[in-house]
């Protein structure tokens, strides 16, 4: 049962424009959310996180928004750069004390020059 | 500092065989988790070890097992390999259970079962 879903397998955006990656979840007990970025032949790398007590977290060009009532989070990248082209995974954790994350299936972002 | 090291990077095995994958976490990290990545399925949690104890386990059959040594290095074993076990196996380590930046992942071991 997929508790974290990324319904868009791919997204193509022009350089300089905004990229919006979406993620939905079903478990209302999730208390922490993260986004990871993955390049081919490399492991995922941490990008940004948000606690369930917040609705927004910003880090440079990256902003994550959390809508708990809709069980939805999104990652905004502004402005998008060709180097941002990668697969993006959202992940969620239910129990603060354990490192068990539920991952979405990923969205492949292509930023065109 | 050195990152998470997984060996081997690539592996080809035959159905019915068993395989052992190795993961060396970042120095000082005590938590090691394993994930299976298959196309379209994202990363599926296998298990987590902390101070040589398995703290959490995903929904995988008993053919998948693991252990952690006193130096925090971890191994994952899959017995009686099936074609569906072909995947990228990722290991991740963290200092503790609730770091704000989650895990640091290794580059993975690509297992192909033929």
Strand content of chain B: over 45%
Structural class of chain A: mainly beta
Number of H- or I-type helical stretches of chain A: 0
**Biggest contact:** A-B, 27 and 29 residues
Task: Work out the helicity level of chain B.
Answer: under 10%
Could you name the ranges of chain A where pLDDT drops below 50 across 5 or more consecutive residues? none
How many β strands of chain A by DSSP? 11
Give the H and E element order of chain A. Answer: EEEEEEEEEEE
Task: Please give the count of helices of chain B.
Answer: 0
Our Rg estimate of chain B from Cα atoms comes to 13 Å
The shape of chain A is globular
> What is the number of E strands of chain B?
11
Task: Kindly report how far apart the N and C termini of chain A lie.
Answer: 38 Å
What would your notes on this structure say?
By secondary structure, chain A is mainly β. Chain A is built from no helices and eleven strands. In chain A, the strands form two sheets. In chain A, strands 2, 4, 5, 9, 10 and 11 form a six-stranded mixed β-sheet that branches. In chain A, strands 1-3-8-7-6 form a five-stranded antiparallel β-sheet, with no helix packed on it. In chain A, 36% of the residues are buried. With 114 residues, chain B is mainly beta. Chain B is 0% helix and 53% strand. Chain B contains no helices and eleven strands. In chain B, strands 2, 4, 5, 6, 9, 10 and 11 form a seven-stranded mixed β-sheet that branches. Chain B has a four-stranded antiparallel β-sheet with strand order 1-3-8-7, with no helix packed on it. In chain B, strand 7 (64-68) and strand 8 (74-78) form a beta hairpin. The termini of chain B are far apart. Chain A binds chain B through residues 2, 4, 6, 9, 32, 34, 36, 41-46, 49, 89, 91, 96-106, and chain B through 4, 31, 33, 35, 40-45, 48, 50, 55-56, 58, 90, 92, 94, 97-98, 100-108.
């Amino acid at each position: 049962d997929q508790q974290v879903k990324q319904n868009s397998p791919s997204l193509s955006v022009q350089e300089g424009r905004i990229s919006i990656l979406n993620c939905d979840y079903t478990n209302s007990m999730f208390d922490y959310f993260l986004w990871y970025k993955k390049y081919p032949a490399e492991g995922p790398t941490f990008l940004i996180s948000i606690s369930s007590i917040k609705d927004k977290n910003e880090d440079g060009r990256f902003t994550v928004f959390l809508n708990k009532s809709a069980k939805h989070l999104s990652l905004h990248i502004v402005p998008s750069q060709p180097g941002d082209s990668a697969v993006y995974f959202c992940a969620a954790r239910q129990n603060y004390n354990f490192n068990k994350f539920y991952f979405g299936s990923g969205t492949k972002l292509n930023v065109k020059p | 500092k050195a990152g998470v090291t997984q060996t081997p990077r690539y592996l080809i095995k035959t159905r019915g065989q068993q395989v052992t994958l190795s993961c060396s976490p970042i120095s000082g990290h005590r938590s090691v988790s394993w994930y299976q990545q298959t196309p379209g399925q994202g990363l599926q949690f296998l298990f987590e070890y902390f101070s040589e104890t398995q703290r959490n386990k995903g929904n995988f059959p008993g053919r998948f097992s693991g252990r952690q040594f006193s130096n925090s290095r971890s191994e994952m074993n899959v017995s009686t390999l099936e074609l569906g076990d072909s995947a990228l196996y990722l290991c991740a380590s963290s200092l503790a259970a609730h770091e704000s930046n989650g895990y640091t992942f290794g580059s993975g071991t690509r297992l192909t079962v033929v």
